[in-house]
Structures are given as structure tokens and as C-alpha cells.
Amino acid sequence: MNVTTLPATPSCRNVSEVLNRVGDKWSVQVIVALLDQPHRFNDLRRQVSGISQQKLTRTLKVLERDGLVERTVRATSPPQVDYTLTPFGHSLAQPVRGLAEWAVANMHTLYDNRARYDAHSGERGSLDS
Predict the structure, then answer these.
(1) 62 burial type by CB count under 10 A (0-12 exposed, 13-18 middle, 19+ buried)
(2) Domains of the chain: residue spans and CATH
(3) Distance from chain centroid for Cα 104
(4) What is the pLDDT of residues 31-69, one digit of tens each?
(5) What's the burial of 118, exposed, middle or buried (CB within 10 Å: 0-12/13-18/19+)?
(6) Contact call for residues 40 and 83 (beta carbons, < 8 A)
(7) Which of 22, 57, 85, 106 sits CB 3.0–4.6 Å from 89 for a disulfide?
(8) Is the distance from CB of 104 to CB of 96 less than 8 angstroms?
(9) Cis-peptide into 79, omega within 30 deg
(10) Distance (Å) of CA 14 to CA 21, 37, 121
């Protein structure tokens, strides 16, 4: 299927909604962190560098709501909570990991290209802001 020739239909909007949801910075990192094994909250927070407790809580709730992450409370004292990818989450995790690996492998090329573009066009600032 050639997506570049598809008209902007409701299904295209649905694809955009899904990509916005699962492709945000924190969701990608949480999904990749959970790919190999379940994690407890604080372990996840250490794995996902820079995420606040509040943002991790929100991200996990969104991923749980979408059926990508399962939250399991163990009856211990104090209760322990584990997060794991569901089978649906695993179906997304491999493509997300591939994207993350591509980003890491190409980060320097991207930055070099931006610097070259900015130097050529006389720009001093970033277009990302």
C-alpha cells in the first residue's frame, strides 16, 4: 500500500491519532523499556531518563487504557505493582524499538544536516521551537 497516494480520509486521521498517541517521546521509551521484561514503577522511572513521576504515571495510564500495558498489583505489604507489555503491546514494541534504534544510529547525521541547513540559509535558531 502506498500511503503517499492515499486521500485524507477518516482512516488517515485515525492513523494520525494512533501515531500521536504511541509515538510520543515518553510512550516510545516506556514501550522499549518494557519490551524484554516487566518493571516496577521506580525501576521504569530509572530506565526512562528524565521522565517525572507524574508524567510516567500519566503515560502508563494511557498505555494501559489503550491495551498496550498491563498493570498487576501483587498482594504484598506494601503492595507491589508491575507493568508489562500485553501481547498487543508486544506487537507494537518491535517497530517502536526499530524506530528508536534508527534515531540513535542517525542522531549525528540529523544534527549535522540541521547545522548545514542553518548555515546555508543564514538561520541562527532552531525550527523545532
Answers:
(1) middle
(2) 13-127 (1.10.10.10)
(3) 14
(4) 989 999 999 999 999 999 999 999 999 999 999 999 999
(5) middle
(6) yes
(7) 85
(8) no
(9) no
(10) 11, 30, 36
